[in-house]
Structure to design on (76 residues):
């Protein structure tokens, strides 16, 4: 399961989500600007307040680290 913690105004969030869509990766998009509980959960799990944060199989990546995300999702 892939979760993306994002906000609508974040350009890196948009780039990340477009990258996942282009590679046909299903993901849950969580808008932390609206969902206070999810925001608290994200901060608690990562210690980060910045977005995007992507969770892949319980591993968290802060920011749009294309190389690491591609590695975890086997995107060539």
């Amino acid at each position: 399961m892939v979760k993306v913690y994002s906000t609508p105004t974040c350009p890196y969030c948009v780039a990340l989500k477009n990258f996942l869509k282009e590679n046909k990766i299903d993901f849950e998009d969580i808008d932390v600007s609206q969902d206070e509980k999810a925001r608290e959960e994200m901060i608690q799990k990562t210690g980060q307040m910045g977005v995007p944060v992507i969770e892949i199989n319980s591993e968290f990546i802060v920011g749009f680290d294309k190389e690491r995300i591609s590695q975890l999702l086997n995107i060539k």
Observations:
- The domain at 2-72 is CATH 3.40.30.10 (Glutaredoxin).
